[in-house]
Amino acid sequence: MSITSVICPSASDAARVLASNNRARFFGGGTLLMRSINEGDQSFDTIVRINDPIMMQIQNAGRQLIIGAGVTMSGLLSNRDAQFLASAARSVGGPAIRNMATVGGNLFAPSPYGDFTTALIALDGIATLADGSTVPLADFLLKRKNDHTSIVTQISVNRPNSADEFHFLKVSRVKPKGIAVMTFAACLPRQGGRLQNVRVAAGAMAPTPVRMVSVEQALEGQGLDAGTIEAAVGVVSHDLAAPTDAIATSWYRAEVAPVHLRRLLIGASGHTGGY
Is this prediction's pTM over 0.85? Predict the structure, then answer.
């Protein structure tokens, strides 16, 4: 297959190329697109790249961290301001993959991939598109399957107030870099001992990573004690449509999801010995 490569100076230029050619695909880190090329995918014949420094920048903006869509997982791991995302970035493949895989590319990774995106949702991630508009990641993901023209230039996330506010758990059959059976991320701020502005997200448990609104509601305004944790665990299934794939069945995912969410919440509570 002959592939034409187009390098654009800006995201808006790249978006115009994609909109004018339905056989063009955007090339970020290449972990997904190169696999398609190697497998002989005939649905595209043009790859579009961007040569714009803003795509590679990480900016500290007070309560927010703004991450260029072209930043790699390795780039995040080496950035001091992004260390609260280290556990999520480290969950993406091995060192070679982390050197290629980008934050923006992870948004388009099909389930059961996209572990890092789960963390971004739990941190109220907002995507900035090529035209300058912004959209919450949870909404952006709903339309990504049929969208080959939107380009994300940056993602902003809320910075946790402290290291114990954000928690991430990836469950896989092969350590340390296996494909996810499921992924959970939770931002659990406290005020006066009560949980405030809770965000919980799950990956590989629906067509895209999703917020677990019912779990959030069970936790909001409560102390993170045994009763609250059990109430949250009891509504896990309300937010999820666990798929069956080569990694696990829908039945298995639904059965073990409460176990792993409980473990994450117990760890977050500080009662690591369990209840």
Answer: yes
